[in-house]
Structure formats: C-alpha cells, structure tokens
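Quick one: structure for this chain?
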Amino acid sequence: MLPRKRRSLTTDDCCRGAPEPSSRSRRGWELAAGAFSLGVWTLIPKCPVCLAAYVALWTGLGLSFSAATYLRWSLLVLSSALLCYVAWRRNRRTVTGP
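Got it. Here's what it folds into:
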C-alpha cells in the first residue's frame, strides 16, 4: 500500500468539506466482511447433501435436498455480493481519496 500524501490544512480545505479519513471500525468491518465471504467460499461443501448433513450436525435441524440446494446457492450469492461490495467500496475510496 502506498503512503498517503500529507496535505497542509488551509482554509480552502476546510471550506471545501474535505472527506475525513476512514475510521478503524470501518476498516475492521471491511476486513471481517471479506474474511466471512472468503470463508463461505472455502468451507461450503460442493454437494447439497453434505451441506444438509453439516447443518444437521451443527444445529440438529434436518434439511431436504431442495432446501439444502437453495441454501447453498443463496450463501454463495450473498457472500460473492458482499465481497464485490467491499471491493467496490475500497476501490472507490482509493480512486477518490480517503
């Protein structure tokens, strides 16, 4: 990551409403969201029957084959959308500045 350029604080910067730097909580949220999304992609089983078995093992709830299929696809779509959103926000902040 490149170091940020330091700007001197002048009245022009104050009047323009310069954007404030990102907070630690926002960066922490982005890190957690990215880790969750990648974790879903690495830990999700390839077959819906295995997903139903994992859900039954961890929670005691039984899933049908079709419910496990829909759950698997919805988890994959949700995690990829979350990862795309985090990447888009980081790219937008990099292009426009902090």
